[in-house]
Amino acid sequence: AAHQMRTPLTGLRMQTDLALMESDPAQIHRSLQQISQSAERASHLINQLLSLARAEASYEKIYAVEQVDLEALLRPMLTDFVPRALQKGIDFGLETTDQPLLIDGNPVLLGELLKNLIDNALKYTPVGGCVTVRTIATEKAIVEVEDTGVGIPEADRERVFERFYRVLGSAESGSGLGLPIVREIAELHRAKVSLSPNPAGQGTIVQVVFPFSRTEPPPPALPGPMARNQFPPA
Ligand code: ATP
Ligand code: MG
Questions:
Q1: Is 144 found in the same domain as 94?
Q2: Which of 179, 193, 202, 204 to mutate to test the pocket of ligand 1 (most atoms within 8 A of CB)?
Q3: Helix %, strand %, coil % for the chain, to 5?
Q4: Are residues 117 and 47 in the same domain?
Q5: What is the domain-level CATH number for residue 113?
Q6: Closest approach atom of ligand 1 to CA 173
Q7: Comparing C-alpha atoms, which of 226, 89, 70 is closest to residue 145?
Q8: 141/52 same-domain check
Q9: What is the pTM of this model?
Q10: pLDDT tens per residue, the chain (234 residues)?
Q11: How far is CA 52 from each of CA 70, 183, 201, 219, rounded to the nearest angstrom?
């Protein structure tokens, strides 16, 4: 991590030194734009490192575990990503079960997990593509992020979870920490993350499968004699 932070900071210093030697205002402006981009990348890297460190810290001690409705967590988050999707002309949608999807966990960490997946989907999907966030309730609580992006070659599908690993040739910038953060937070929640190619032929589907909340209230009693026999249980 120290090396990963040194490189962008060295770059920033060199760019600043060069800019200070310029006298042409147009050239100074261009240099400042580069410096601004580099500073943004460096601060993104630091934020991702902090996020990973937070996830690594034994969360039972630091974070309160509560019952979290994944549906309710997703809705405002998706709204925040809408301007970016619009800017890129991406068809961005939410498909939900329309009922609470309750799990036990920490909303801050879960928010970071979901944000990283949506960020990847929007980042690695070219202009005009399609990104869908989906919730599914089976015997598990499932969140899926589907995109029609560049896809992840099979040979890289495990390695992308390694810290700082990025698929070669990507035109997008990033620190290679998003998926390691996702995996770390998923493990804390006893959830499984899987990557698969989008069956539509292009892009990726990331699935996170959570156990349902253990403190979930029992389903409403069925009318009739069966329900009367079941509640209260013997
Ligand atoms: P960061 O998330 O820290 O900003 P990053 O996006 O490069 O940087 P990860 O989110 O860990 O890092 O992803 C690792 C690599 O996996 C990416 O660099 C990219 O090559 C590939 N990748 C991740 N998600 C997708 C996706 N939805 N489609 C295509 N490639 C992806
Ligand atoms: Mg990422």
A1: yes
A2: 179
A3: 50, 20, 35
A4: no
A5: 3.30.565.10
A6: 7
A7: 70
A8: no
A9: 0.88
A10: 778 888 888 989 999 999 999 999 999 999 999 999 999 999 999 999 999 998 888 655 667 789 999 999 999 999 999 999 999 999 999 999 888 999 999 999 999 999 999 999 999 999 999 999 999 999 999 999 999 999 999 999 999 999 999 999 888 999 999 999 999 999 999 999 999 999 999 999 999 999 999 885 655 555 544 433 333 333
A11: 21, 10, 32, 36
**174 neighbors 165 (Cβ within 8 angstroms):** no
Taking the C-alpha atoms of residue 45 and residue 175, their distance in angstroms, rounded to an integer, is 6
- Residues 28 and 69 grouped into a single domain: no
Ligand 1 cavity residues, CB under 6 Å? 48, 116, 120-121, 124, 147, 149-152, 160, 166-167, 170, 174-180, 204
Q: How many domains does the chain contain in total?
A: 2
165 and 113 in one domain?
yes
Which residue segment(s) compose the domain that 22 sits in? Answer: 2-56
Give whole-number Cα distances, 23 to 14, 15, 31, 34, in Å: 17, 14, 11, 16
Antiparallel, parallel or unpaired: β 66-69 and 102-105: antiparallel
**Cβ–Cβ under 8 Å, residues 193 and 206:** yes
If you take atom 27 of ligand 1, which residue's CA is the nearest one? 121
Do 83 and 44 share a domain, yes or no?
no
